[in-house]
């Protein structure tokens, strides 16, 4: 635990696909026993970095409880269009992600261990890195819900990548009927670090309810969009500062399934507890800055139309409800002065929630509800026949 | 243990027989799909509705329903 090592404990400061350079930086990949690994993960408080924020120790315990040899899947699908953190991580530090897979493979005595990569992620670095270590990188078809874990299981079995009925969890029965552990690429890299340096080291950064570091993808009205690494529980304003926001009106936290934090509240900390007030979570770390000259209702109508398109069409409430939401948001955005629109949109948001095989309707409804809530005065202006953003555009 | 009714949304086509057979538990939404009256994802089935629930499970033309015992 000398000073030069400390610098390498930042995820984005990797050695690229060169394995020797990786070994020089981090040393050999540790081989903890399952009980030790479980204890370390539980103590660390590591939660998944793919969006759902589920405790990694609980997932691992569920898979380890199965009687058959499990399958471990690294999830680098990066299905959210505004996210690029897993692509950047795999380009800069692919071996750390592969270390995470290898640690789990040997602790669980897996039948199969793969890294699933979506079409927006350049697999070159991961493949070059994996080739030297006998690990499998599988490029898969994309789509907003393709990274959902049961959809991933379907694709790995050669089926269409659509979510399954969650009655049976993939941790119980996933790829080829085996207990399957699906962990986000960043989660695997975090696991590889905390197994090396210990849970107390991991918890020494961040807050009690958001321990460790996380990757964030910053986009929208900023001078320097890109991926940054920050301590859990950092203030939103500090995390987006390196990207240099331009005339921010609000920040969308958690991507298209997330919620808005208005510019007046940018000192909020990025933790589950603090973001609850804005009915969102950190999700996969997407932070999208909206400027004050862009109409938030129009933005939301565009996003919701996209989300409706991305419904796999399996579940009735999502298949029918999301286009309904998108249509009414579009009407509101284009200046239809029907005062019943906000309540009808709110009713439909509630109606689709909790009624699908995956979280797509719930997440989409959450985003729409947040838009109506945070931008209610803007919505009211539309119903009065004008758009404050377009007035700002004309003034500037 | 509480009996609960699970809807497999990937199978459900909104045929509507479940809501007809179990009106105490299920309504129908704007699009003809079953809507849990208690708002729970898998609505609880009281003992007095258990027989009707079994009937609904058997009657679903796409086998989208199942009755199971859950803790809580």
Descriptive overview:
The complex is a heterodimer of chains A (396) and B (72). In chain A, the strands form three sheets. In chain A, strands 8-7-11-9-10 form a five-stranded mixed sheet, covered by helices on one side. With 396 residues, chain A is of the alpha/beta class. The model of chain A has no long low-confidence stretch (mean pLDDT 95). In chain A, helix 14 packs parallel to helix 16 and helix 15 runs antiparallel to helix 16. Chain A has helices at residues 3-7, 19-26, 34-44, 56-64, 85-92, 94-108, 124-131, 149-156, 185-197, 199-203, 236-240, 272-275, 296-309, 316-333, 341-352, 360-374, 376-383, 388-395, and strands at 71-76, 112-117, 136-139, 180-184, 206-207, 210-211, 213-220, 226-231, 248-253, 259-262, 286-291. Helices cover 44% and strands 14% of the residues of chain A. With 72 residues, chain B is of the alpha+beta class. In chain B, the strands form two sheets. Chain B has a three-stranded antiparallel sheet. Chain B has a two-stranded antiparallel ribbon with strand order 2-3. In chain B, strand 2 (26-28) and strand 3 (34-36) form a beta hairpin. The longest helix of chain B has 10 residues, at 50-59. Chain B is globular, with a radius of gyration of 11 Å. The N and C termini of chain B lie close together (6 Å). The mean pLDDT of chain B is 95. Chains A and B meet through helix 14 of A and loops of B.
Summed over residues and divided by their number, the pLDDT of chain B gives a mean of: 95
DSSP helix fraction of chain A: 40-55%
The tally of strands of chain B reads 5
Q: Spans of chain A with pLDDT under 50 lasting ≥5 residues?
A: none
The largest β sheet of chain A comes out as:
5 strands, mixed
């Amino acid at each position: 635990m000398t000073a030069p090592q400390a610098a390498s404990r930042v995820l984005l400061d990797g050695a690229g696909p060169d394995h020797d350079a990786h070994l020089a930086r981090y040393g050999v990949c540790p081989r903890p026993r399952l009980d030790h690994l479980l204890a370390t993960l539980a103590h660390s408080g590591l939660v998944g970095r793919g969006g759902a924020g589920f405790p990694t120790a609980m997932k691992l315990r569920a898979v380890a409880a199965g009687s058959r040899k499990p399958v471990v899947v690294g999830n680098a699908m990066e299905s959210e269009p505004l996210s690029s953190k897993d692509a950047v991580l795999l380009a800069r530090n692919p071996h750390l992600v592969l270390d995470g897979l290898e640690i789990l493979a040997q602790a669980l005595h897996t039948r199969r261990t793969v890294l699933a990569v979506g079409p927006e992620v350049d697999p070159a670095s991961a493949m070059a890195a994996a080739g030297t270590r006998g690990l499998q990188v599988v490029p898969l078809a994309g789509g907003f819900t393709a990274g959902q874990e049961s959809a991933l299981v379907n694709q790995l079995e050669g089926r269409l990548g659509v979510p399954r009925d969650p009655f049976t969890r993939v941790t119980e029965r996933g790829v080829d009927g085996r207990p399957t552990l699906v962990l986000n690429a960043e989660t695997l890299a975090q696991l590889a670090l905390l197994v090396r340096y210990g849970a107390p080291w991991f918890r020494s950064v961040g807050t009690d309810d958001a321990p460790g570091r996380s990757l964030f993808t910053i986009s929208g009205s900023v001078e320097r969009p890109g991926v940054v690494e920050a301590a859990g529980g950092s203030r939103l304003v500090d995390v987006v500062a390196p990207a240099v926001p331009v005339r921010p009106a609000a920040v969308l936290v958690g991507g298209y399934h997330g919620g808005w934090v208005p510019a007046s509240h940018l000192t909020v900390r990025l933790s589950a507890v603090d973001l609850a007030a804005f009915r969102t979570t950190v999700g996969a770390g997407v932070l999208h800055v909206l400027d004050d000259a862009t109409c938030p209702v129009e933005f939301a109508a565009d996003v919701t139309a996209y989300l409706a398109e991305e419904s796999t069409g399996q579940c009735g409430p999502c298949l029918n409800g999301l286009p309904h939401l998108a249509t009414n948001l579009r009407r509101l955005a284009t200046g239809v002065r029907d005062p019943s629109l906000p309540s009808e949109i709110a009713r439909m948001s509630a109606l689709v929630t909790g009624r699908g095989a995956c979280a797509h309707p719930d997440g989409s409804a959450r985003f729409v509800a947040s838009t109506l809530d945070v931008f209610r005065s803007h919505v009211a202006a539309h119903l009065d026949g004008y758009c404050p953003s377009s007035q700002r555009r004309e003034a500037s | 243990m509480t009996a609960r009714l699970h809807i497999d949304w990937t199978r459900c086509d909104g045929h509507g027989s479940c809501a007809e057979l179990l009106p105490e538990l299920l309504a129908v939404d704007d699009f003809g799909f079953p809507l849990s009256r208690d708002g729970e994802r898998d609505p609880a089935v009281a003992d007095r509705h258990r027989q009707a629930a079994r009937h609904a499970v058997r009657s679903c033309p796409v086998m989208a329903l199942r009755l199971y015992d859950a803790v809580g």
